[in-house]
Design a protein that fits this description.
- It is a single chain.
- With about 110 residues, the chain is of the alpha+beta class.
- Helices cover about 15% and strands about 45% of the residues.
- β5 and β6 form a beta hairpin.
- The longest helix has 12 residues.
- It is globular.
């Protein structure tokens, strides 16, 4: 699934759908970028029930993802994936704009 030059893998879509299935009807996952974290910017994931008028909306297979216009600029060309390996399960954003990132992968610098 791709919108606004952001791609979401099938694994991520499946995991998002399973998370949202446990929430009240109409729940959506918001992916955003905020200042902070050990590298300057950090990714944030929240479950929301309302969307803003200017949100980009990606939807497929009972998974709806919201991204605000400012965050889309930081995420341009990125891939949102879900990884389940020996060290844990988590969403991972492969961001070509990031010059560096922290060890846990939740923050980055430009």
């Amino acid at each position: 699934m791709t919108l606004g030059n952001v791609t979401v893998t099938d694994r991520a879509v499946s995991k998002i759908a399973s998370i949202l299935a446990k929430e009240p009807a109409g729940a959506m996952l918001r992916v955003s970028v905020e200042g902070g974290g050990c590298s300057g910017f950090q990714y944030k994931f929240d479950v929301e029930r309302e969307r803003a008028e200017d949100d980009l909306v990606l939807g497929r297979d009972n998974a709806t993802i919201l991204i605000d216009p400012v965050s889309v600029g930081f995420l341009s060309g990125s891939e949102i994936d879900f990884v389940d390996d020996l060290i844990g399960a988590a969403f991972k954003i492969n961001n070509p704009n990031a010059k560096s990132s922290c060890g846990c992968g939740t923050s980055f610098s430009l």
